[in-house]
Amino acid sequence: MKTKTELIKFNQGLDLESGARLNTFDLMVETYGELNKDKDNAILVCHAFSGNHHAAGKSSDNETLGWWDEVIGPGKAIDINKFFVVCSNNLGGCSGSSGPLSLNPETNELYGKDFPLVSVTDWVNSQKLLSDYLGISKWHMVAGGSLGGMQALQWAISYPNKLKKAGIFATATKSSTQNIAMNEVGREAIRKDKNFMEGDYLNHNVKPKSGLKTARMLGHITYSSEDIMDQKFGRKFQDIKSKIEGTVDYEVENYLQYKGEKFSDTFDANSYILMTKAMDGYDASFSSNGSLEEVMKRIKAKLLVVGFDSDWLYPPKRSKEIQLAAMNVDVQCSCVILKGEQGHDSFLFASDRYVKIIQGFLDSK
Amino acid sequence: MNTSLIHIIKKWIPEKSKVIDFGCGDGSLLKDLIDEKKIRGYGVEIDHNKIQECILKGISVIEKDIDEGIQDFESCNFDVAVMASSIQCLKEPHLALRKMLKLSKQCIVTLPNLGFWKCRLDLAQGRMPVTPNLPSSWYETKNLHLCTIKDFETLCFEEGFVINERFFLNDKGAKSAMASTFPNTFASEGIYLIAKK
After folding, report:
1. Domain identity same for A158 and A207
2. pLDDT of res. B4
3. ipTM of the predicted structure?
4. Segments forming the whole domain that contains residue A218
């Protein structure tokens, strides 16, 4: 599948929720399909915590398939024969958009730990500038799962006239106490890595790989579920030849070791901290003193809220909270809870019903 | 749902009101009400295919088992709650009615009448009734709490519900003098608009 990747430079600057300002910033953007003449077939997909702009397909043989390849593509739930799909790497990320790994134009040095705190709302504001750049005055849909779902919800709140529909999957209007707690364990593992150097590791040419690895291993436990781990690995012992670490006994340990190792090769530790802080900090109702209804009143888009029964990170009751708040203030909103084979990660996979529901939602008036 | 039933339900629903349809099926009623009466409507459904049809029609639908979920919508302040042809399938119809009148000012209920003469005839012949609006045999039916028109009105009285409107149809799904005059025997279906006192 054809993908177009482009680094777009924004010179108009962006005021962040934290009070900081980026005078210029870059967004790494990937697109699929073609924008039609009326520019009304555009869909913005927002990535989750460790995702990036590469949402689908692959542009070269060595590249891996995008994170939502099961859902985006020709004839898939989000059909690129009909829609023009856009995905950008979030600010503060480590895949090309401005973040800890980019040069601070003010100092000409790497941002590193000094990249300002970013929020879900900041991301949405940067994506709004992206839509202006692309000449898209109204998205047909803005969609995402997990942290991406928070962005889709915030889009509907921040820019009510700029989207027709919002697909809000496996997410919540705010992170729960438990979500914050899990993220803090991950961050602590990174901070306590001797190579972290209080975030200054880039200047010392080292990487806090072991901290990142531990954080990711914990993450993978939260993205799965008790039942799913039982089914996938059970108590099977790991075959000696393919052990990643000598200490590994069980398959599940080997799996976590593998995933953690891979992640720590590619992800940036400061980005990890920024992204999880943004996730923890999100509360759609913050600007109205905790009244979700008050902020959701602004929404004009039609919402599709999907939760997954095996998701314990953002469980179905979080989806139902969004739907109920929407109903309280007369916002059009459908809510379905699907059987998820993959825990929290279920939103990434194209199960039959999920595909049909997304297609139906996209085709509906 | 037959056309006279839909016609009556539509008549009782005010323009621009906020409506919840429990057991909304494929969302046709809500779609009509949105198009014709500019209502703000939500459907509750459990059947996957019907939910899919609602979404395709652009109807807001919530996947939920009515037996478990009515009270969830208490904060929503509906003008009208509709429960068409499903009250007798619920585990506790009387509690369901109470809950519906907590979340909505008025409530439209339609129910098959077990007192209909053809049902009585079936029973007199020693068989469970099978009629156009009670089409399933005893082992397949989803109906748990069938009642007669008289039973339903007694329940409304005991629960302190006011019957604001009522309408009766014969087994052809049409209005008839006999059904209106002697509903407990000649109505195949009763349609009620009820409210709290």
Report:
1. no
2. 83
3. 0.92
4. 179-276
